[in-house]
Write a structure and sequence with these properties.
mainly alpha, globular
């Protein structure tokens, strides 16, 4: 079963869910909130062109976000595709 018309709405739900987990991670010491935040940005930038532009602008405006993304890339739980995310959202390119 392949439902391509459901891909974007499911991605939006996943992004929202990850952002909620990010906020919960900021409040609970058990969860790594920053990792969920970076994963939400990853999905946003890889699935939506507008999201890619938002992340590029945010990385340019807030260098701490770029450091956070680099930190997440090196984390042992980070997906292998996080390097691709860093490449497509690099504000210097």
């Amino acid at each position: 079963m392949n439902f391509p018309h459901l891909r974007k709405p499911l991605m939006v739900l996943a992004i929202v869910g990850l952002l909620i987990l990010s906020v919960a991670g900021a409040l609970l010491p058990i969860l790594q909130g920053w990792l969920f935040f970076v994963l939400a940005l990853y999905l946003l930038a890889t699935e939506f062109e507008v999201g890619r532009m938002w992340v590029k602008r945010a990385r340019k405006r807030w260098p701490a976000l770029s450091r956070l993304i680099e930190r997440a890339r090196d984390h042992r739980w980070a997906p292998r595709h996080l390097k691709e995310f860093e490449d497509i959202t690099d504000p210097t390119k």
